[in-house]
């Protein structure tokens, strides 16, 4: 919490947002701002202060990884219903980090080739290297969310996947990846108004797809599928965080805080020189 | 030039920086600021104003590509001697664009697998999709720069590559990619002081490699190799731009201007709705 000590956070974001035993999605108010005592203006200010911290921590992580000082990486997994604000998180939180330190992977409807493999095949290929912040815009969780709601796979296959995910994520964690799984939790009402905005603005038409309303119609089924995901896959090594997302400013600030706390935990240090500094200074001075 | 009309540019960046017939690298002053009438403070202000323009133009390009309204993409190729500021361009110019609209590819020393293929094999795989700004941090030009200076391939193979590059880039251009090739041109003196800074600051040690001085020793050979690159590969469809880079603020501003002018040329428009807007509004209103 050091980095946020002068700010309006009253608790550790990871503490207040983590899915623990007995968590029920239905109990979360999507307009709430857990752990944060400030308002929208404070939120914007605190987001801006976090930018430089996040950028430096990421650069340190990258630097440390170049000299084998760490095998750590961070993987942010973003899942949400349409319009919940994944794009805004990527633009305003992830986008504040040096692009050389970020590996972004957007998982869309699987291709024929991807479908011919196990559901984790395409995921495995996009796992971040040491030193990077990987971001999954949708993920392997689609295979137990839309996969379950739309019955894209048999029930026993969906069942198998929860265990496969837990094993996969444990292996990632053991190899140094800090996994931060975020569900952006908007209300159905807020989604309605955001979809209405897309239909009102010609510069937003391209973001609208008539299929969005079909998914919206299955809202309760999706919420049930998320609840099962949390129960089966929120683990010590890869916990879920449910971030109330009706207020965009809070959601962005909270995801930034989750990343900051994770990086502060890693506490990456500038690596020592792997060469003789004085000798190199002399060589440089002699060069033409 | 519309977008920059209130600013301190006195000419189109593409006009003043393009490598044309008779260009000689040795004639360029790395501390100069061609086409720009302002100083460092103006430069920072103009860079900041360009951020929102670049971001909107990129989003329009992406939107247009989603509805098949365009097959256009932009490919920024960055080449330079060490410390010339590629990283700063990526952080401060490219980094101001939504990460979802950028495809960054850093080409390092080729792997065994890459070396077993033609030199363009690994490049082809990273060509940007329509709607994106692709950025090559180093590129296929390494194969005729370090490739030539360090004699990593026979002379006739190096010779063959110039033609292969021209053909490759023509094919890219014909399929909609606007290629912007930038050489960041620093002086040997400026490099010396930037290397000295890396040796003075423990948070910069990780950026220093003793091999950098070996490359520095071959400076005149590299300049000759660049001169040949310009003569053989600066074409109508894929011109080179030589950007004086001793002043970081100018180099960043100039590359931003090159991207802005390229996107303004494409002039991407928000695509029309591909659905019946009123019918969708009615469906949304009826949804729960």
UniProtKB/TrEMBL annotation, chains A, B:
Superkingdom: Bacteria
Gene Ontology MF terms: kinase activity
Alphabetized UniProt keyword annotations: Kinase, Transferase
Transmembrane annotation, as ranges: none
UniProt domain Polyphosphate kinase-2-related: residue ranges: 51-267
Protein name: Polyphosphate kinase 2 family protein
